[in-house]
Amino acid sequence: MPIQWFPGHMTTARKKAAETLARTDIVIEVLDARIPEASCNPMIRQLRDFRQRPCLKVLNKSDLADPLVTAAWLEFYNRQPGVKAVALSCKHPGEPGRIPALCRALAPHRNDPTKPLRMIIMGIPNVGKSTLMNALLKKRVAKVGDEPAITKSQQTLDLGKGMTLTDTPGLMWPRIEHDSDGYMLAASHAIGTNAVIEEEVATFLAGLLLERYGDLLSARYKCPVRGLDGASLIETIAARRGCRLKGGGLDIEKAALILLTDYRSGALGRISLETPETRATLLQAASAALSAPAAAPEAAPEPVSELE
Ligand code: G4P
To answer: Which residues contact 98 (CB under 8 A, 6 or more apart)?
Structure first.
């Protein structure tokens, strides 16, 4: 089942963000380092392109992501015009402190006391925008929570040294184009749990992890995983962890949640669900599917009048 999630308050939030962007110099776009493109809201790109604002892409939660893949993503983004990318973890004190200097370099014209550097933090829910805001301000001004869409209104704060920072609520977009993006977002907890079936998401995640992180799965669940598919991996986890229903059958829902929690918390290890190469393959497949000629329509029956 394709996953879609666009709570009503986000339409208002989008409008407000577009207005604020007009009065801003730099967009700090926070992405989830484990799924940078799946967590990149195309609406933010449009708003940014429309206003021609440079962008600092922050690949946050890099403590949870595969470092080699993160390096490949940085190279990918740093080739884009008007973009600078940086990977960091808000869980590592000191790392967010690199941001002001990177922003300054992106807007050198805003460098005198009468022209403060105005930055706006944007991104989808749960990528760490509030945590980043608090780290930059060195105090708790924004609510942090592992439930998507916690921040519901904007606030602008003075960072000192001629810099201001506006945070925005998490912005989703009305239609997630690729089903796999919906699953990656749900697995990484950017999409509200009410909108998704955890078991389906876990089966998708299990399939992806089997392709690239079999060793981490074997180490975590202490079992061989070669030859398993997503569904049978979750059954194996249920058996290994003693997840049983009252009647004695395997509790697949519980095992699915174990896998999701282990991925989300980093207990499985440092994992990236997409790479620049897998993204390129996905986009090629999608555009090939779009340009494939539609199946020839069945010959329409001739109008009765002409048969007579
Ligand atoms: P948002 O504003 O974009 O919606 O995200 P928010 O800052 O509320 O962060 C969502 C969750 O992500 C929080 O988890 C936060 O601690 C965590 N987080 C933020 N940045 C990082 C990071 O760089 N690495 C890791 N591993 N986690 C990060 P939480 O469960 O509510 O809080 P906590 O128990 O982790 O503190």
So the answer is: 86, 88
Distance of CA 230 to the CA centre of its chain: 22
Atom of ligand 1 nearest to the CA of 30: 3
Residue of 131, 265, 271 to test ligand 1 pocket, by largest number of atoms within 8 Å of CB: 131
Distance 127 CA to ligand 1 centre (A): 7
Domain range for 39 is 14-167
pLDDT in tens, the chain (308 residues): 676 666 666 677 778 878 888 889 999 999 999 999 999 999 888 888 888 899 999 999 999 999 999 999 999 999 999 999 999 999 998 899 999 999 999 998 887 778 889 999 999 999 999 999 989 988 656 555 555 544 556 778 888 888 899 988 888 887 899 999 999 999 999 887 654 688 999 999 999 999 999 999 999 999 999 999 999 999 999 999 999 999 999 999 999 999 999 999 999 999 999 999 999 999 999 988 888 776 555 554 444 443 33
Q: Residue 5: inside a domain, yes or no?
A: no
Are both 37 and 82 inside the same structural domain?
Answer: yes
Q: Is the CB of 65 under 6 A from ligand 1?
A: no
Q: Which atom of ligand 1 is nearest to the CA of 143?
A: 8
The CATH number of the domain where 231 resides is what? 1.10.1580.10
10 close to 43: Cβ distance less than 8 angstroms: no
What CA–CA distances, in Å, run from 154 to 74, 84, 107, 166, 249?
Answer: 28, 24, 23, 7, 49
Closest atom, ligand 1, to C-alpha of 149: 4
What is the number of domains present in the chain?
2
- Determine if ligand 1 sits within 6 Å of the CB of residue 129: yes
Nearest CA to ligand 1 atom 20: 128
> Quick one: which H or E segment has residue 57?
strand 55-60
Tell me the whole-structure pTM to 2 decimals.
Answer: 0.88
Q: Is residue 118 part of a domain?
A: yes
